[in-house]
Amino acid sequence: MNKLTDPLKQATEALGKKICAALLSNGYKSAVYVRTAEEARETASDMIPDGVSVGIPGTVTVRQIGLIEKLEAKNCRVIHHWDPALTRETRSPRLAAENSSDWFVTSSNAVTFDGRMVNIDGTGNRVAGMAWGTGKILFVIGMNKASRDLESALKRVRDIATPPNTVRVGMTTPCVTLGCCVDCNAPERSCRAVLILERVPFGRESHVILVGESLGY
Predict the structure, then answer these.
(1) CA-closest candidate to residue 210, choices 1, 21, 27
(2) Which residue, 3, 100, 156, 191, is the most exposed by fewest CB within 10 angstroms?
(3) Residue range of the domain that includes 169
């Protein structure tokens, strides 16, 4: 079967377009469905002008689609804190600079069928940028993160998104060994700030690209 006749791809696309319609009704400036990571990269690149500053917080998805390299080739000033050379003193200004960039490009831990986004953060910089980024905001979200409702989205964030993220950064919380959330009180707990975007906050220009692939966690 090709990508146009594969039943799973057809169903995924139908759901993706339904979610895009919900996002538009919730105030997003644009919400588009694309089938592949490559299409997502090109769509995002076309949307973001050459030479602007782009803040990229902790997002596996944006890095998976190769957007950083694409933006750098367009002479954009990409600002991100996943730099092992950063010290405790230099990391905080970098986090602030991400959120004050011309564009803030991130993903979401979950998006519901009715167009709500759910995210969880340890430091709070990423959810702060989503709610109060001073520039334009772009979400790139794999369809693996689609959740029927708010309850399932919250469960997804804790049980599916958080464990691999804590493994990725080398934490020793219970979810690393158990593979699911137990609502721990560990000092390294990364579930500290939960943001539910029911609508686009006042004053924000926000865009969404939904991708018909499994991306991020």
Answers:
(1) 21
(2) 3
(3) 7-211
User: Within a domain: residue 2?
Assistant: no
- Give the Cβ contact number of residue 189 at 10 Å: 17
Distance from C-alpha of 166 to C-alpha of 161, rounded to nearest angstrom:
9
- Distances 155 to 86, 173, 199 between C-alpha atoms, Å: 33, 18, 20
C-beta of residue 149 within 8 angstroms of C-beta of residue 182: no
Q: Which tens digits make up the pLDDT trace of 159-192? A: 999 999 889 888 889 999 899 999 999 988 989 9
Q: Which are the contacts of 177, defined by CB distance < 8 A and separation ≥ 6?
A: none
Output the CA–CA distances (angstroms, integers) from residue 154 to 39, 58, 103, 128, 140, in the order listed: 28, 19, 27, 18, 19
Pairing outcome for strands 146-147 and 110-112: parallel
pLDDT digits (tens, 9 = 90+) for 13-41: 999 999 999 999 999 999 999 999 999 99
